[in-house]
């Protein structure tokens, strides 16, 4: 993922924006809550944790009380500036935000837990830096995420890869490296946006289209809104998967 995109988002919104009017419906459970539950199953006061792709650090800070320390890395200086500001405001002292590219990661310690919350992945690196019997926990984007929206635009993140199961691919990669996969599940949810302005603001701050332009893409977005609005709002289908593996 291009760090320039996240630098731009941090400059515009000061991190991830949270003032969008949106409702979410997940019949099989909220994947974010499942991910959080799986992560906190491994909480203990002696655990050293690596957060891969921490962004503005809000999630990192929220789980910090459950672990000894969290090293949180990101390749966006803008997001890290927001993260350090949030850390200062919340007076959290056991989180260490670091500017790092995952693929050239330099760390001296080994971790009890590595987690990735829709961030970059490098499974050989994760295997190397985990302690024996350490855990890797991931929530990431599935192949069908926002598919109808991307088809309307004719482009987008992982465009056209609808037939490849990202969860199955991830499981195979982890097992090949020597991980034992303990949990793996797809989640399909529906999001309902209250207005055109809400979904337009949302698209400005997420990498569904890294090149999203409010003016140039107006006709595409209006076309989607007209075709996918019901009494609850503008509908966007989301796809996530959650996975837990042990070294």
Account of the 3D structure:
With 247 residues, this protein is of the alpha/beta class. The protein has one domain (3-246): 3-Layer(aba) Sandwich (Rossmann fold). Helices cover 35% and strands 30% of the residues. The protein contains nine helices and nine strands. The protein starts with a helix and ends with a strand.
Key structural traits:
about 250 residues; alpha/beta; Rossmann fold; 9-stranded mixed β-sheet; 9 helices; 9 strands; globular
CATH superfamily: Vaccinia Virus protein VP39
* Low-pLDDT runs: none
Listing every helix as H and every strand as E from the N terminus to the C terminus, the arrangement reads HEHEHEHEEHEHHEHHEE
Shape: globular
> Please, how many helices?
9
In angstroms, what separates the terminal alpha carbons? 26 Å
For the biggest sheet, the summary is: 9 strands, mixed
SS-based class: alpha/beta
The value of Rg in angstroms is 18 Å
What do the pLDDT scores average to?
94
Count of domain modules: 1
Q: How much helicity do the residues have?
A: 25-40%
Task: Based on the coordinates given, report the CATH architecture.
Answer: 3-Layer(aba) Sandwich
Mind telling me the CATH class? Alpha Beta
Strand content: 25-35%
Question: Briefly, what is this?
Answer:
By secondary structure, this protein is an alpha/beta fold. The protein has one domain: Vaccinia Virus protein VP39 (Rossmann fold). It contains nine helices and nine strands.
Helices and strands in order, then pairings?
Elements: H1 3-13, E1 22-25, H2 31-40, E2 44-52, H3 58-63, E3 67-74, H4 77-90, E4 95-99, E5 111-117, H5 123-129, E6 130-141, H6 147-153, H7 166-177, E7 180-193, H8 196-204, H9 218-227, E8 229-230, E9 233-246
Parallel strand pairs: 2-3, 2-5, 3-4, 5-6
Antiparallel strand pairs: 1-7, 6-9, 7-9, 8-9
Helix pairs in contact: 1-4, 6-9
